[in-house]
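Lesson 9: reading folded outputs for more than one chain in a single document. The general rule is that every protein is listed as its sequence immediately followed by its structure tokens, and records are never interleaved. Here is the first one.
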Amino acid sequence: MLHEFLRNTLSRQKLRQLFFNTALGNFAGYVAGSLVTTVATYHSVERRALRNLFGVLPRHKVVVHLLPEWLEWALCVFVGFLVMEFVRFVVNRKKYLLLFNIAPDQAGTASDDATGGRSA
């Protein structure tokens, strides 16, 4: 009985779907977190000063953070997590709709039937 349960649960197709969904969610979360970092920083050229002999030596690019580093990091993690969970919700939405015997294309009409076809 346990062998049959494991064979059905850990089938090749289900494992492939799990890996794909996890990779898609993690990648989307990583991209969203990286975009937060990109939006919260910018590059600037350093000013003339004694360390570059008042412009005689070449100037270096400097990264300027608009937010404190800890806040930027926390915001990246939070936004990345939200995007990852949103992707997981969208991927699994189809399964939940099928569980309640609602076709994905009828999901919008199911709420209209509950209100009697009236719009607010």
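And here is the second record, again sequence then tokens.
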Amino acid sequence: MKKILITLVCLCSFLSVQSQTIIYQASYFAYKYIDNERWTDWTKWYPSKITISINLSDDIIKIYSEEPQTYVVTKYTRTFSDKDGGKQSEYRVIDQDYDKGIIRLRIESNGTIQLYVDFSNVMWVYSGLKRI
């Protein structure tokens, strides 16, 4: 009887789980790109109020910038800590134009959250993410 009750509770819990979406707002934005076969330096930090939606239950990351961006997560690659005490998660993604890239969600040791979007010819970073 105990096993049946536990199984029912687990089943009900599983069925009631909904996809969790985490929504952030970025405070700053910067980018760099390939110019004459070399990476440029990062641009200055531009103030931003860009909203970022991360729904890993549905494998979708959306960035609501001037040109909205939608990324489908095709593979979760890894989570690791670096020598500076920050933590980072990496995801292989495909954008709305079917270009392949990597999105990195990074939490600095001081608590600052950044989202990097990396492609072969351009990279941008959203910084100062605050959960809304």
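What the second record shows: The chain has one domain: 17-131.
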